[in-house]
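We examine the record.

___
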Amino acid sequence: MQVEWKLPDLDPYLFFRVAEWPGLTVRRARVLPGSISEHTNDFHEISVSLAGKLKTIKNTGTGRRRITCVNGENICLTPAGQAMSAEWDEPIDNVGLFIDAGYVSDLALENGFSPQVRLREIYRGNDQMIKTIALSLIENADDTHLDKLYADSLVQSLSLHLLTNYSESSAQPLPKIGGLSGYKLSRVKEFIEAHLENDLGLAELAAAAGLSTFHFARAFRISTGQTPQQYVMQRRIERAKQLLSKPDIPLVEVGLRSGFKTQSHFTAAFRRLTRLTPKTWRSMRAV
């Protein structure tokens, strides 16, 4: 993919941020006028237009060329392998989501869809869920307390949303599954307790149970009534309470040993679940 800028003497990027997770790359850019030559990608691309006027030219799945002009907010989905080009004569603000085709195929198979995924071409649409997930991921890309479990859940939700709403094949009913066996649930809980200080991801927890990430997330919720993220957060708060009962441990150390990367995140999470700050909770326990 080659980009040509219409004002070559100026820095074309007014703003640029990129973040990556397994199966997904998200990029937000505010750029000066330019154009992208015709190209094809081996990944699915979703363009979330936030501001500015953009013209895209696509070779559709039926072999026709389609020109779409977008002014303002819009969702554009280009499936892997589809040729497209674009140009814009004024600054634009855009979020691009680049989703690994293999990741979507694996998730499709786990959810009763054909693994030969064919996503529908979307030229002009408005999907609030896609926009919300995209902005949440990219706006928190530099946030040191965005844990992997939260990001993993958003990526999985986005992919399932695409399969459910934009796939050309419908899902077959999934067989009902139960929760984790007592042994697997104990193993996962022990793994969590042993690694609370680390930035745990869904893949690590699923590996401890010997399951795929999607099947693990469903089975864990059936067994515990909580998502993995909710359970891990609860355990971190309980760990923090244990450490706070020891007055010689500084608050900063309490947060770090409980798995919080920053003091501000520790305080916010603790107050959200207990309605007290860590300092207030410790003071009340000392009375």
